[in-house]
């Protein structure tokens, strides 16, 4: 009996596409942050180099006029800075920044899964 839905209850194509893009973006960002965490967990020199490059890329995004680019730039800058701090061989600072990177990986992957579930539920409702 619940097969028939009102037109306004069905998710729009725009909202479905935003959920799909968000799912892919969050998942990719979580994987990228996990790779940064792994690089920082190895030898200190690659962690410093890669973290510095990511931080500079983040600063470069601040030059854009688009607010979404500025937000992405802030996230990249923080991820790069945490990678640099994780690579520095100071026990408390590197340990704390690795924990923060781990929470970031978990949070981004969780957001990716949640948005993917919403996307597939919305597709199921539309069919």
Helix and strand string, N-terminal first?
HHHH
Main sheet specs: none
Tell the overall outline.
elongated
Structural domain count: 1
Structural class: mainly alpha
Q: What level of helicity do the residues show?
A: over 70%
Tally of individual helices? 4
Radius of gyration: 19 Å
State the end-to-end CA separation. 15 Å
User: What are the segments in which pLDDT stays under 50 over at least 5 consecutive residues?
Assistant: none
What percent of residues are in strands?
A: under 5%
Q: What does this entry look like structurally?
A:
This protein has helices spanning 13-41, 44-61, 67-87, 91-126. The relative contact order is 0.19. The two termini are 15 Å apart. By secondary structure, the chain is an all-alpha fold. The protein has one domain. The chain has four helices and no strands.
What does this entry show, briefly?
The chain is built from 4 helices and no strands. The chain has 127 residues and is mainly alpha-helical.
């Amino acid at each position: 009996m619940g097969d028939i839905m009102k037109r306004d209850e069905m998710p729009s194509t725009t909202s479905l596409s935003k959920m799909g893009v968000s799912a892919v973006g969050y998942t990719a960002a979580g994987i990228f942050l996990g790779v940064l965490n792994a690089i920082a967990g190895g030898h200190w020199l690659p962690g410093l180099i890669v973290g510095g490059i990511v931080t500079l890329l983040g600063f470069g995004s601040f030059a854009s006029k688009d607010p979404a680019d500025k937000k992405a730039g802030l996230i990249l800058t923080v991820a790069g800075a945490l990678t640099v701090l994780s690579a520095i061989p100071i026990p408390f600072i590197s340990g704390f920044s690795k924990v923060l990177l781990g929470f970031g990986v978990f949070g981004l992957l969780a957001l990716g899964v949640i948005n993917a579930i919403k996307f597939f539920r919305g597709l199921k409702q539309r069919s």
